[in-house]
Design a protein that fits this description.
The complex is a heterodimer of chains A (about 280) and B (about 120). Chain A is α/β, with parallel strands linked by helices. Chain A has two domains: about 220 residues, Rossmann fold (3-Layer(aba) Sandwich), CATH 3.40.50.300; about 45 residues, Alpha-Beta Plaits (2-Layer Sandwich), CATH 3.30.70. In chain A, the strands form two sheets. Chain A has a nine-stranded mixed sheet, sandwiched between helices. Chain A has a two-stranded antiparallel sheet with strand order 4-5. In chain A, helix 1 packs across helix 11 and helix 5 packs parallel to helix 6. Chain B has one domain: Dinitrogenase iron-molybdenum cofactor biosynthesis domain (Nucleotidyltransferase, domain 5). Chain B is about 25% helix and about 20% strand. A five-stranded mixed sheet of chain B has the order 3-2-1-4-5, with helices on both faces. The chains are: A alpha/beta (about 280), B alpha/beta (about 120). Chains A and B meet through strand 4 of A and helix 1 and helix 2 of B.
Chain lengths: ~280, ~120
């Protein structure tokens, strides 16, 4: 089973929930945690895995053979990402805009464009106790997270419960990470901003046909705007984590919720079992 | 010589559009023949500055007058030998007169970071 942990709004506690689930389940199930938040992977801070394998992620970018190029400009015309400009005597290639689609090389009438790999990230794998751990890391300054996320997801171990820590937002990296999940757990906070972005995230996962439920983090008595919305939409709120100084203090020291206070492990195991029930019910 | 000016409208009395890659129109003026052509700009989600630079190269412009320009666009224009004049505002026709009178000076590089004009207007 694949469970992705996403949010909409950033900083609501995706990693808190993902790492707490992994730690709570490690003696119940075979668990794998994959950090798909490749622009800022931080699950490792809490799971402290030993990384044993590190593989570069490359995308093909064009290289011009000036002996053949006639500066006709076809490559710039066909580039959907505007990563190429042709000026008299020179072809300018903006690597960071290139999606590696290969159109320029395929359609060049002079066969003057070849492709070479450009490293834009890395996928690291290892273990934290009996938890299998994978994370993607985008090189600082790179614009495209999706190729790295795809490589992380190729490491999904179907014999384990895969927990995907996803980046915030609802754009391409989130869609690519969440796609193919059996369930998406959306972590939010009871603020108007948290609710606004939760609605966008719910719309996104519904479009992808993935069942979802909600965890409210930093819950405060009387702040029911998220609960009210979920009630109206028929979305289960599986867990509420209170706004609590001690939780924050432990977390800031690299100790995730389920590790800091054992009472939470049972709560996370319960959430997992209920999600499993929902997923098995659908299947 | 063809001068390109970024504009919010398609006429000489339109205002200069402060954005280069995401301007509404390019107005191309041949200053010898006074032939004026306005071209609508349709920026893409990414690479708008590069594409706009390519448009100017394709039209054979030798000078561009605009508000701000980013590093990628500047790289395309300078590789093509197009003179870049930034920090200009007001009416297109006034900028053109100032240019003809030699009152506008080329800038030495990009005036803003990438994506500067993406959320403006």
């Amino acid at each position: 089973m694949i469970i992705s942990i996403a949010s909409g709004k950033g900083g609501t506690g995706k990693t808190l929930v993902a790492t707490s689930l992994a730690i709570s389940l490690r003696n119940e199930e075979k668990v794998q945690l994959l950090d798909c938040d490749v622009e800022e992977p931080d699950s490792h801070l809490f799971l402290k895995p030993a990384i044993t394998v590190s593989e570069p992620v490359c995308i093909p970018v064009p290289k011009v053979d000036y002996a053949r190029c006639t500066f006709c400009g076809e490559c710039a015309r066909v580039c959907a990402y505007k990563a190429i400009a042709v000026v008299p005597g020179s072809v300018l290639i903006f690597d960071q805009l290139c999606h590696g689609c290969g159109a320029c090389s395929y359609l060049c009438p002079e066969k003057a464009i070849s492709e070479e790999g450009r490293e834009m990230g890395v996928v690291e794998s290892g273990r934290s106790g009996n938890i299998e751990f994978v994370q993607g890391r985008l090189i600082v300054g790179e614009a495209m997270a999706v190729p790295v996320i795809r490589r992380v997801k190729q490491k999904i171990n179907r014999n384990r419960t895969a927990l995907l820590d996803v980046s915030p937002g609802t754009s391409c990296p989130v869609v690519n990470a969440v796609e193919d999940s059996d369930y998406c757990l959306l972590v939010t906070e009871p603020t108007p901003f948290g609710l606004h972005d939760l609605k966008l995230a719910v719309e996104t996962v519904r479009k992808l046909g993935i069942p979802c439920g909600v965890v409210i983090n930093r819950a405060v008595d009387g702040e029911t705007l998220v609960n009210d919305y979920c009630g109206r939409e028929g979305i289960s709120v599986w867990l509420e984590i209170p706004l609590d100084r001690e939780i924050a203090r432990l977390y800031s020291n690299g100790i995730t919720l389920a590790e800091g206070s054992p009472g939470w492990q049972a709560a996370f195991i319960d959430v997992y079992k209920r999600i499993k029930g929902v997923v098995n019910g659908i299947k | 010589m063809i001068v390109a000016i970024t504009a919010t409208g398609d006429r000489l009395d339109s205002d200069i559009d402060p954005r280069f890659g995401r301007c509404k129109y390019f107005i191309f003026v041949n200053i010898e023949t006074n032939v004026v052509e306005a071209v609508i700009n349709s920026p893409t989600a990414g690479g708008a500055g590069i594409a706009a630079g390519q448009t100017l190269v394709n039209y054979g412009a030798k000078v561009v007058i605009t508000g701000d320009i980013g590093p990628n666009a500047y790289q395309v224009l300078s590789a093509a030998g197009i003179e870049v004049i930034t920090g200009v505002s007001g009416k297109v026709k006034d900028a053109l007169e100032a240019f003809k009178a030699g009152k506008l000076k080329a800038s030495g590089g990009a005036s803003v970071q990438q994506h500067h004009g993406q959320s403006a207007l």
